[in-house]
Amino acid sequence: MNQMMGLHKVYHRLTILSLFPLCPPPLFPSLKLSRFTLGHLRTHHSANSARLRSIMAAATSRLGNLVSATSFVAEDGGGGSNVSVNSSTGTSTLDDEALGGKYQLPPPEIKDIVDAPPLPALSFSPQRDKILFLKRRSLPPLAELARPEEKLAGMRIDGKCNTRSRMSFYIGIGIHQLLPDGSLGPEKEVHGFPDGGKINFVTWSLDGRHLAFSIRVDEEDNSSSMLRVWVADVETGKARPLFQSQDVYLNAVFDNFVWVDNSSLLVCTIPSSRGDPPKKPLVPSGPKIQSNETKNVVQVRTFQDLLKDEYDEDLFDYYATSQLVLVSLDGTVKEIGPPAVYTSMDPSPDQKYLLISSIHRPYSFIVPCGRFPKRVELWTTDGKFVRELCDLPLAEDIPIAFNSVRKGMRSINWRADKPSTLYWAETQDEGDAKVEVSPRDIIYTQPAEPLEGEQPEILHKLDLRYGGISWSDDSLALVYESWYKTRRTRTWVISPGFKDASPRVLFDRSSEDAYSDPGSPMMRRTPSGTYVIAKIKKENDEGTYVLLNGIGATPEGNIPFLDLFDINTGSKERIWQSDKEKYFETVVALMSDHKEGDLYLDQLKLLTSKESKTENTQYYIQSWPDKKACPITNFPHPYPQLASLQKEMIRYQRKDGVQLTATLYLPPGYDPSKDGPLPCLVWSYPGEFKSKDAAGQVRGSPNEFAGIGPTSALLWLARRFAILSGPTIPIIGEGDEEANDRYVEQLVASAEAAVEEVIQRGVAHPGKIAVGGHSYGAFMTANLLAHAPHIFCCGIARSGAYNRTLTPFGFQNEDRTLWEATSTYVEMSPFMSANKIKKPILLIHGEEDNNPGTLTMQSDRFFNALKGHGALCRLVVLPFESHGYAAYESIMHVLWETDRWLQKYCVSNASDVGTELDACKCDANKDVTDSENKAAAASGGGDPELEDFEHQGFHPVPRSLL
Question: Annotated catalytic sites, by residue?
Answer without folding.
Answer: 775, 849, 883
